[in-house]
């Protein structure tokens, strides 16, 4: 998979050189391009924002630098034979990011992330990009960040770890929260007793059927208690 990021803070993404994603990049499983939006702002001060039409507080990101940045990335995509990649604009006005979306995006050949700042990006950038790529506005939750960089980092981690070969043991991806729609069961390791707290005896029984049943019940109980909205109908 190829990932391109447009941002005014390219240094934000140096963290993607480490850990699993760093190894995936070294192994060639993920290609990463971080593009500084200011490289596409050709005035002397490399301005990327301006005051909003219609008034109001804050600044809006100008369309020209975005248009040139998107065109430059799409031109390179076409040269690599990728037509209509997905462009993701993190936005509190977007559709809520879920594990299902992470799974969906993990099958794409290329993802482009457009990190807005200030009060957002001129709407015409989204409208223009939609004529040349599959555009998705995606939200990490009902709260407001100062820009799309942290949201992009979270999505890249959630998506990247699903790409075959990135996570050492693919089996570990199966029994996780949200992988089967429910929250995961509690986990324990040695010692069996710690500060007067015991590991549930069933986990020491060696009875795999009883262990699987206990874990499923724990998932349901935890999901009922913490996230009843995730419960499948008639549970
Ligand atoms: N919540 C957000 N606030 C600002 C930018 C992006 C956001 N998001 O969730 O993707």
UniProtKB/TrEMBL annotation:
Q: Which reaction does it catalyse?
A: guanosine(37) in tRNA + S-adenosyl-L-methionine = N(1)-methylguanosine(37) in tRNA + S-adenosyl-L-homocysteine + H(+)
The residue ranges of the tRNA methyltransferase TRMD/TRM10-type domain are 1-231
Q: Which domain of life is it from?
A: Bacteria
Q: Which UniProt keywords apply?
A: Cytoplasm, Methyltransferase, S-adenosyl-L-methionine, Transferase, tRNA processing
The entry marks the following residues as binding S-adenosyl-L-methionine, namely 116, 140-145
**BP GO terms, sorted:** tRNA N1-guanine methylation
InterPro entries with a match to the protein in the record: Alpha/beta_knot_MTases, tRNA_m1G_MeTrfase_C_sf, tRNA_m1G_MeTrfase_TrmD, tRNA_m1G_MTases_N, tRNA_MeTrfase_TRMD/TRM10
* EC id: 2.1.1.228
Q: Which GO terms describe its molecular function?
A: tRNA (guanine(37)-N1)-methyltransferase activity
Q: Record's Gene Ontology CC terms?
A: cytosol
- Tell me the compartments it is located in: Cytoplasm
Q: Principal place where this protein is found?
A: cytoplasm
Please describe what this protein does: Specifically methylates guanosine-37 in various tRNAs.
Similarity annotation: Belongs to the RNA methyltransferase TrmD family.
How it assembles, according to the record, is: Homodimer.
Question: Which NCBIfam families does the UniProt entry name for this protein?
Answer: PRK00026.1 (NF000648), trmD (TIGR00088)
> What is this protein identified as?
tRNA (guanine-N(1)-)-methyltransferase
Give the originating organism: Marisediminicola antarctica
Encoding gene (name): trmD
